[in-house]
Amino acid sequence: MDLIHGIQETMRIKTFAMKKGADLAGIADLGLLAGIPTKPGNLLEGFTVAVSVGVRLNDSVLDGMQDRPTSLYAHVHRMANTLLDHITFDVAREILGTGYDAIPIPASEAANIAEKLDTTKAQELDWRPLTSSTLPSKAVARAAGLGWFGKSLLIVNPEIGPRFRHASVITNMPLTPDTPLRSRCGTCEECVKACPAKAIRGLRFDGVPPPREEVLDFPRCRDTLWLDFKNIHDVGYPICGVCIASCPWGRRRQQ
Ligand code: SF4
Ligand code: SF4
After folding, report:
1. What pLDDT score was predicted for residue 120?
2. Helix ranges (DSSP H) in the chain
3. Can you name the residues that pair with 49 across neighbouring β-strands?
4. 240 contacts: CB under 8 Å, gap ≥ 6
5. Which residue puts its alpha carbon closest to atom 2 of ligand 2?
6. Quick one: which ligand is closest to 147's CA?
7. 208 pLDDT exceeds 80?
């Protein structure tokens, strides 16, 4: 595939994803993700890029949240994951139809497992399979230029902030990668102040984040989601959304 054809095919695949319901689409150079943990460990062998897609969450639902998830947020979170899985499945099929290889990466693994589990007792849980994924979607979204890693470790897009969910398709189709964005968090600490678990440390960084424990007290966040919020009536799985709702990027102006 020559350069011009590669650019045209990149536009075509992004447009295809948008027509299927994506609000954001970008291409990640998998070379930027060398050494990233995957399940299985050799998942990325033979693949060169990932198509990262984003589906926007509902502003009114996010604006209606205070310090915990609501049943409406659980609904839009679930539906966004379902739509993402349909989009990535279709994008992979479209790529396979051109003769290249492609695998859709599930958007909602932890959520799917969580719905089947009684999580009222931390000591009975093995957290590892519940909090690791086939391929970390945030790192792919950042490499694809969908946004920067915020202090909350959410991906923050300049237009819609962290108000979206994302998923990806890995492929060997020679698509043209996008460029990662620089952090625009600056001195903001809105998510630090809003976090109900007091888990966000407020560390300033740019690009690939330092080890997670330096940025977040992850066990505090995880335990709040899995042991408290999952057990809220009509929520039912480990979500929060407070750091999403609190970020000034993408928040609608007050009337
Ligand atoms: S998901 Fe909730 S508990 Fe976890 S860091 Fe964000 S605001 Fe804090
Ligand atoms: S709330 Fe502020 S610090 Fe947190 S991710 Fe958004 S811009 Fe960055």
Report:
1. 67
2. 3-19, 59-63, 71-96, 109-114, 128-131, 137-143, 190-194, 212-215, 218-223, 242-246
3. 29, 171
4. 68, 69, 196, 221, 224, 225, 229
5. 188
6. 2
7. yes
> Residue 247 — very low, low, confident or very high, per pLDDT cuts 50/70/90?
very high
Write down the pTM of the prediction.
Answer: 0.92
Q: Which residue has the tokens 């678990």?
A: 197
Which residues, 6+ apart, have CB-to-CB distance to 193 below 8 Å? 246
For 91, other C-beta atoms within 10 Å of its C-beta total 25
Residue of 152, 215, 244 to test ligand 2 pocket, by largest number of atoms within 8 Å of CB:
152
Rounded Cα distance between 53 and 136, Å, is 13
Q: Using CA positions, which residue lies closest to atom 4 of ligand 2?
A: 191
Respond yes or no on whether the N-terminal peptide bond of residue 40 is cis (omega within 30° of 0): yes
In DSSP terms, 26 is beta-bridged to 52
